[in-house]
Structure formats: C-alpha cells, structure tokens
Design goal:
The complex is a heterodimer.
Chain A lengths: L1 E2 L1 H16 L3 H22 L7 E5 L3 E3 L4 E8 L6 E9 L5 E2 L2 E6 L4 E8 L5 E13 L5 E7 L4 E5 L8 H12 L12 E7 L11 H6 L4 E6 L5 E7 L6 E2 L6 H18 L3 E7 L3 E5 L7 H9 L11 H11 L5 E5 L4 H6 L1 H11 L1 E7 L2 H7 L5 H26 L3 E5 L1 H17 L4
Helix pairs in contact in A: 1-2, 3-5, 3-12, 5-6, 5-12, 7-9, 10-11
Chain B lengths: L1 H20 L16 H9 L3 E5 L2 H8 L5 E4 L7 H8 L4 E5 L5 H4 L4 E11 L6 H6 L2 E9 L4 E2 L4 E4 L2 E4 L15 H9 L4 E5 L17 H4 L3 H21 L14 E2 L2 H13 L2 H20 L7 H12 L3 H9 L6 H20 L1
Parallel strand pairs in B: 1-9, 2-3, 2-9, 3-8
Antiparallel strand pairs in B: 4-5, 6-7, 7-8
Helix pairs in contact in B: 11-14, 12-13
The chains are: A alpha/beta, B alpha/beta.
Chain lengths: 432, 353
C-alpha cells in the first residue's frame, strides 16, 4: 500500500479543526479514526494490481546516441478499474523517458504505453521491474505492486567513423582495378592482360603476349583476396583511460576496429575479432561477410575495460591458437612504453614470426595540448612532462618498427581513418 | 560551515549567560568571588568549627536539634513571615547581618537606629570579641539594643543575638583588612558548629509570570492536541513520501579515469621539485626529435653537426643555438620559460626556411 499527498493534506487541515473545537482530544481521535477508515476504504476499493498482465515489444538493440521506442501493453483482467501511475524501472543510463506514466485501465481492457530509451552508455540495459500504484476512489491511499517484465536492449557502439567508409572504399576500388589504374606490388595476383595505354608503367608490359599479338599488351594485377585479418582489442587497464574529455581508449579502438572490419570485408578478406585482457572477453570468427559487422557490434557492446594488467603471453597464446594461417594481426592497445615493454615486447618475436603485426594506439589530445603549453613556469613544467611522455611513445614506436611491426599512433578523431589507411597501404604493398 | 558557526555562537552565548549569572553570591561560604565568604568558611573549618551551608529553614531546624550551634543569617533572607518565625524559634546563638526583611522577627529586642558610613572603625566597647579584634570594616545600619554596642552602633548584642550593620567585613574582599578576620572568627567561632543560612537558589522556571501563571497555563487547552494532530499529519506525509514507486535500480558503472592524469602528475612533480634539469632535458629532446629529420642529417647526428646545420638554415647565432639545445640546465624558472620560448622559435624558423 501507499498513501498519497491528499491524505497528508487532510491530516494537516484537521489540525485547524482541532485548534478550534471545544473537545480537542475527541477531535484528534475522530480525525485519526476517520482518516484510517477512509484509507481502508480506499485500499478496499482500489483496483487490484496483482492480476495485471504485461506484454512488451520493441527493438532489442539500439546504436548509442539513437533513440529506441519500447512499448508496454497493460491488460487489466480484474473486476475494477485500475487508475494510478506506472513506473518502468530501467537502469539510469538507459535514459528512459517518461520516468513514470499515469494509467487508467478499465476492467477487461488494455492500454498501450510508449517509452523512449536514449541510452548514454554502451552495454546491455534491462528493465528490473514494472511497478503500478493504483489509487482508491477517494485518492487517499493506493495499492502498489511490482511485476517482473524482463526486457533487455543492447546498446551498440555508435560506429561514428562510418562516415570515413565511402572514401576508403573508393581507395580500395582503385587498388582492385575497378577504376582504371594499374597497381602492382609484391604478392599481388595476376589478373588479366589488356592493351597498353599511355601512362601505364612500361615495366608491366608482357613482352611474350605482345609478341603473339600486333599490339603492346600489359599485365594487370589485383590485390590479394581472401587474406585473414585478426583484430585484437586489449581490454586491460590501459584501455580504461579517457582520452581528451570523452570516450575511453577502448571505445575509440572499437570505432576504428569497426571501420577496419567494414573495409576488410569489402576487400574480400576474412575478419576475426578477439577481445582479451587476462581472459578472452569476446571472440568472433568465421562470420559471413554480410553479418560480420552486426556480429562485431553485438559482441563489442557489453565489453568494458577491466582494471587489470593485460596478460601479454596469454594474449600471444590466444592469437597463435586461433590464427593458424598467416594473418594481419591488428592489436588495438595503448602505446604505453612501460606496459608494452614488460608485456608485448617479450612475446613479439613469437607473433611477428608467424603473422604480420600492426599495433595501433590512440594518443591523447590533452597531452598534445600540454606539450604546447608555454607562458608560465607551471605550463612549461607540464609541457616538459608531456614531451617526456611523447618521447617515450616515439621510442617504443621506433622499437616496434625495428621489429617489423606496423604502428598507428593518431589522435582520437583521426584514429579510425589512420588505421584504415594503414590497412590499405599494406594491401597496396601486397604485404598481407 | 553553518554548523560550526552555530556551535561557536551557542558556546559564546552560553558563556555570556553563565558569566551573567556569576556575579558572586553575597556572603556565601561556597563562593570564592570577591562578594562571597569562602575564605572565612575555610578559616573556621581550619579552627575545627563545622560549617554547614543551609538554604532552607527545615534543614536549619534539623541541624539545630543535633546540638549547640550558631546560626548565621548573612545575605538577606527572602523567605516568608512564617519561615522567619520558625528561624527565630531555633535555639542557639544568632549572628544576623543587618538589612534583613524580618529583622524585627529574628531579633525582636534590637531596634533600627540609623545609618553610618561604611569604613574601618574602632570597637569603642567592652565586648571581648571586638576588643580582641581591634579595628574592623563596619558601618551601614546602626542599631539600639540593651547589650553591648560597638563600632558606632553597627554591632550590637542582645542576649544570644548579635546584629551587624553590614556583613561586608566577612567577604573575601575585606577579610584580610584590619581586624576583620579576627572579629569574624571571634563572632562565629564561639560554638562547635555554624549553621550558615544562605538564600535558596532562585530558578528561572519559578519566576512568577503575569498573574503568577506559567506559559503552559496561559496556553489554550487545544494547542497540545493540535500539536498531536500535527505529529499525525507529519507521520502521514512521511509515509506518503517514504514509499518509493518501485525498486532502486543499481548499475555497474565503468571507471572514469583520464588518460592524461599520469602526465599531469609528472608535471606537478617537476613543478614541486623545481626539476629544471629534467624539464629542460625533455623539452630539448622533443625539439631535437622534431628538428633532426628536417635537417637531413643521419640517425644519430653529433651536437656540433646539428648546431652548424641549424645555424646555416635559420641564420641564428650558433653559440645561442648550442646553449639552447645542449647547454647547462636553466638556473631558474624564468630561464626555463625563456628556453622553451627559444626552442619554439628555432622550430618555427626551421619550418619556415
């Protein structure tokens, strides 16, 4: 049960009566008894909450930043009208509105309630309970009861970098020869012979074929297809740090991973995905080309950075165990010299002997801004600290490159396109 | 903040109130202020005289039944007439300090005579207690009686009753002067015990209001019931507000930690320790890392090669360049700021040329 503000108001107004009647003691007693009787009457005649039945419908996933509309149908099989308020209790970051709605369901009828979800965070958001408070005819007291009507909406990563996809796909088509261009590199595959046009590389003339025909003929090449790309997301402590003022590293890495996956799928490569810190957090393998992106966002959605140091030997073992054939291993982590020095460096030879490794890390625009700070001594000391961390970053980058590892280090906004460009460059060079 | 202010205000207010009440109780054997008589009571106790501080007639009567004692009525006794009569009927010696409302009841054989200035006076009589004591600070009221009359009439005896024009000489303030202490001890130390009567404490709640009625009596009968009803109303409102519409939903939130925090922390450490050597080294290292690729020198160029190439490229003085890039660390913070500015200038020049 629950009381209402009206009951409090009645009790407060009765104080005035008590002040002015001759027998105040009796007035208090009478007031309390009357109020109690009215409350009991209200409770007896209020619509019953327990037999209400609920049905939900709506989407089960929504992209972060977009709005989902979830419907709740309330059916009242009881003999009395249920008039009151209903609250659908979602987690706070589900961004539910309205928080509670007034309902009025006559007996035997049903009403449709519409809630809007505007999640503020990635992950699974669920409804804990639906609570109904049904007022009595006097409006002094209400019956209240909860129902469990489970519904979960998975909030997917927003994939903001998809705006970069068309330009990268155009570059990819150039590579593949769909556009009139002649591309040649190590490990590329022979495609076809065609007539020489002015501007073609003379080195690509096929003299044997030219001799057979009266025309100069050139060979065309196309990039390798059906290569393997393994995107590895480090979900350890270094991914929890927020760069700039917004997202953690992990979310920027996910964004870049999605762009890379979309691009690689179009390029005809097989994309696998692994999220790892001290255990496998997510694993997608062998998804079909059309379903890869949805599979990726689905497994990425609930992944959060854990506050543990990543287990680099375990990560290497997981990669080697899953990628049997040579693959491009894209490791999305932080280029933190201390963490990489102790973690990745010792296991690097194992990985780079079998696979082509690309390490990508988001750099922090705040550090870049601090490095440019001048004017007061405080700002210069901060700038010196920032320079030092940048120098460490450059050193670890140089060491990684020395081991034949590709490195992408970019500011958050440029990170996804930079990674896509690095992939395209590798593809163009036929190094996959 | 507000709570602290409130506490301080309460303490100060309380101390002021207590200070206001602490003006000293006149001729009180437990009062150590200038108006009290604790010193005299202490002297009496040292001489083996029992001093009982009494603030009601009943206690005085019960003490008197235990044996021979002396009753001292010091500060004006503000009881009613019947109490004064009961006091007068107590057996034993009396020492009464002048301005009592019921002096005629307490000492019927003593008549009020007049006034005399309060000062140090000679005994001027044959009373042994006064003669032994010598000069004493007396005066105030003067009396007529059939016994001895000393100190210009401000100390008279009539049988077992001694009346004093003023009790000022027995206070802590005056006791050490002249023969005051001797006179007081002679007067009060004649018996084994002294019943020292003080006015009963006056409580604030017992102050008679208008018509002798308290605020509770003035209030209409309805008010307490209305307060009870208000309590009920508050309880109803509490029940209304206390009932939540459904459960509280908990959510596991991710940690919010800024990645730049470690860098900021290092900056503050540099700042706190004035680590100009390390700071200058970091700034120079960063500048060199950006400059050397633009100069077209090898991977690990020597310092003089870099300085020479920079001087040729920018036209800046080689000595200055050498000091800025490879010199000693700056001597103070201003030097460090200047160094950072100069390094920026070199980089800008190299970019533009």
């Amino acid at each position: 049960m629950a009381l209402t503000g009206r009951a409090g108001l009645v009790a407060a107004l009765w104080i005035v009566v008590v002040l002015f009647v001759p027998g105040p003691g009796y007035a208090v007693l009478a007031g309390c008894l009357l109020l109690l009787a009215a409350i009991v009457t209200d409770l007896v005649f209020a619509g019953s909450v327990r037999p209400l039945t609920f049905t939900r419908s709506g989407p089960t996933s929504v992209r972060l930043g977009e709005t989902a509309t979830v419907e709740l149908i309330v059916e009242n099989p009881g003999p009395r009208r249920v008039r009151g308020v209903l609250r659908d209790a979602w987690q706070p970051s589900a961004g539910l509105s309205p928080k509670s709605v007034p309902i009025d369901v006559p007996p035997g009828e049903r009403r449709r309630l519409v809630f809007e979800l505007k999640p503020t965070r990635r992950g699974d958001r669920s409804s804990e309970a639906v609570t109904v408070r049904a007022f009595g005819p006097l409006g002094l007291a209400a019956r209240q009861g909860g129902h469990s009507v489970p519904w979960t909406v998975r909030v997917l990563p927003p994939f903001l970098s998809r705006k970069h996809l068309p330009s990268r796909l155009a570059r990819l088509r150039e590579l593949e020869g769909n556009h009139p261009a002649l591309v040649r590199g190590q490990g590329t595959e022979f495609d076809s012979l065609r007539e020489y046009v002015v501007g073609d590389d003379v080195r690509s003339i096929d003299w044997r074929a030219t001799a057979r025909r009266n025309d100069v003929v050139v060979r065309t090449w196309r990039p390798e297809r059906d290569r393997r790309v393994l995107i590895v997301l480090d979900t350890g402590r270094t991914s929890a740090g927020r760069v700039g003022t917004g997202w953690p590293r992990l979310d920027w890495s996910m964004d870049a991973a999605l762009l890379l996956a979309a691009l690689a799928v179009k390029a005809g490569d097989q994309v696998d995905f692994l999220a790892y810190d001290r255990a496998v957090r997510a694993w997608v393998s062998g998804a079909s080309r059309t379903e890869l992106l949805s599979a990726l966002v689905n497994v990425m959605a609930p992944v959060e950075a854990e506050l543990v140091e990543s287990d680099a030997p375990g990560l290497a073992a997981a990669i080697l165990g899953r990628a049997k054939r040579r693959a491009l291993v894209v490791l999305l982590t932080d280029l933190n010299s201390a963490a990489l020095e102790e973690g990745l460096m010792p296991v690097l030879p194992q990985l780079s002997s079998r696979h082509l490794l690309l390490v990508a890390g988001v750099s922090d625009p705040l550090v870049a801004a601090m490095a440019a700070g001048r004017g007061t001594a405080e700002q210069v000391y901060d700038a010196a600290a920032a320079e030092r961390s940048l120098a460490e970053r450059r050193r670890i980058t140089a060491r990684l490159r020395g081991h034949g590892v590709e490195v992408v280090d970019a500011l958050p906004e440029d990170f996804a396109p930079a990674l896509a460009d690095a992939y395209l460059a590798l593809k163009a060079a036929g190094r996959l | 903040m507000a709570v602290a202010l409130l506490v301080v205000a309460t303490a100060v207010f309380g101390a002021l109130l207590a200070g206001g009440g602490e003006q000293g109780r006149y001729l009180d054997p437990d009062d150590a202020s200038l108006r009290g008589s604790k010193a005299l009571a202490q002297l009496l106790r040292d001489r083996g005289v029992r001093v009982d501080r009494v603030d009601s007639v009943e206690t005085a009567e019960s003490l008197a039944r235990e044996g021979e004692r002396l009753l001292l009525v010091g500060a004006p006794w503000n009881g009613d007439y019947s109490e004064a009569e009961r006091l007068a009927n107590i057996s034993g010696d009396f020492v009464i300090v002048g301005d009592q409302p019921y002096l005629d009841v307490l000492a019927p054989s003593v008549d009020h005579d007049g006034q005399a200035r309060l000062r140090s006076r000679e005994p001027g009589c044959r009373l042994p207690a006064a003669r032994a004591a010598g000069n004493a600070y007396l005066g105030g009221r003067t009396f007529e009686a059939d016994g001895e009359s000393c100190y210009a009439g401000s100390l008279v005896t009539a049988g077992t009753v001694t009346v004093l024009g003023s009790g000022e000489f027995m206070t802590n303030l005056r006791l050490a002067e002249d023969g005051n202490a001797a006179l007081a001890l002679n007067l009060l130390g004649s018996r084994k015990a002294v019943t020292w009567l003080v006015p009963p404490p006056v409580g604030a709640g017992e102050l008679p209001g208008p018509g002798g009625r308290s605020i509770q009596e003035l209030m209409p009968d309805n008010v307490p019931w209305a307060v009870l009803m208000a309590v009920v109303a508050v309880a109803v409102v509490a029940l209304w507000q206390g009932r939540r519409l459904g459960p509280v939903v908990a959510e596991r939130l991710p940690v919010v930690v800024r990645a730049a925090e470690t860098v900021e922390g290092r900056g503050r450490l540099y700042r706190a320790r004035r680590a100009r050597t390390q700071a200058a080294e970091a700034l120079r290292g960063g500048a060199l890392d950006r400059l050397t690729p633009r100069l077209g020198l090898g991977a690990q160029p020597r310092a003089d090669e870099v300085v020479a190439a920079l001087a040729a490229r920018t036209g800046l003085e080689a000595g200055h360049l050498g000091t800025a890039l490879y010199g000693a660390p700056p001597a103070d913070d201003a030097g460090l700021v200047a160094l950072a500015g100069y390094l920026d200038e070199i980089e800008r020049q190299v970019r533009e040329h």
